[in-house]
Amino acid sequence: MKKPSAISGRILGLAAISAFAAFSQAQPITVHVNGQQVQFDSAEPHMMGDKVMIPIRKVIEQAGGTVDWRSTDKTVVCQLGTTNIEVTVPTATARVNGTETALDGPVHIEDGTTIVPARFLADSIGATVEYDNNDLVLMTNEPTMYPSTTDITPTPQTAIPDNTTNNNLNKGDSSTITTPTTNLMLPEGSALRARLDQELNSKDAYVGQTFTATLDTSGQSDYFGIPQGAKVEGHVTFVQPMRDGVPGIIGIAFDDVLLDNGRMMNISASSINADTDIDTADSGRLTTNELGRSRSDLKFVGFDSNTGVLVPLTTTDAVVTIDQLQNAWPSQGEPHDVDLTSGTLIGLRIDRNANFEEVPD
């Protein structure tokens, strides 16, 4: 059987992924690479609008490649055979073997892993693509050249801050780097309050758009080691402008806490109400209360005012209907576009333990 070329891989990839996207809007997505199912961690393949988005590290490693994180410019660097891929987060382009390549979907970080469009990744590695119901199958042009990493336990590495050293590096020790910068940690279930630095409006925001918010330390010099003035960086996960009586909607998620001297702490955090979903523990630390823990997939919906209300709204389709909103939030009001102005107070729920030693894939 004649081996498919990189060009045929691109053509098949475009057709297969487009058809797959139409089918998979409400389906869990599995991925196979060269006959082996990819085992994902917390970040899973998913739909974003009409795009199939997949975690790049697990797919590249399954194909036998390597993935590194360059923290200086937030770039994931992949090597698969002679193919080199560099993707900077966030960006609208990537570099494949040194050539700038347009991306057809919003690159972002989710649960500490870089997520890229499946079409871009298949095209970049010259893979053929097939789909079977909700299973996306990628075959590289040289499926036997590189060993599968299924039976290999990779050595995890963590970031070394600029102001520390690790003596093991001078001894040729390839073991895990564990030099901490500090004992700073945000435990799962804790909460933060922050004020937006930029406006987010459902009329012109877009999925993948990044934003920052300044941590609200309530006049204190720091919040459990996070200094005053620290920023939270996030991205827009869903947006729908007001139309036909359906209010505007914006969904956001949070990726990093940006500290002084360029230090960064990767987080996985969700939106919650800054007032009703947060309590103050005896230690003074903010924590999510029972209401804040019980609600998920909260999105800003433009009922009653431009700021809107946070509504638990799972969006498996590209468009939210008025019927979906009525089921999620019966107490509806006058529809508006959502306009989260600069200075708007937002609440964050930390969804997994985070500390300085965690960096994105």
Describe this structure in words.
The protein contains 5 helices and 29 strands. The chain is mainly beta and 361 residues long. The chain folds into 2 domains: 6-147, Copper Amine Oxidase, Chain A, domain 1, CATH 3.30.457; 185-355, Type IV secretion system, VirB10/TraB/TrbI (Lipocalin), CATH 2.40.128.260. Strands 15-17-20-21-22-28 form a 6-stranded antiparallel beta barrel. A 5-stranded antiparallel sheet has the order 5-6-7-8-9. It starts with 5 loop residues before the first helix and ends in a 6-residue tail after the last strand.
Quick rundown:
By secondary structure, this protein is mainly beta.
Distance between the termini: 37 Å
The main β sheet shows up as:
6 strands, antiparallel, barrel
C-alpha Rg, in Å?
22 Å
Strand order of the largest sheet: 15-17-20-21-22-28
Q: Do you know the CATH architecture of the largest domain?
A: Beta Barrel
Shape: globular
Number of helices: 5
| CATH homologous superfamily descriptor of the largest domain | Type IV secretion system, VirB10/TraB/TrbI
Q: What's the overall average pLDDT, rounded?
A: 75
Q: What's the domain count?
A: 2
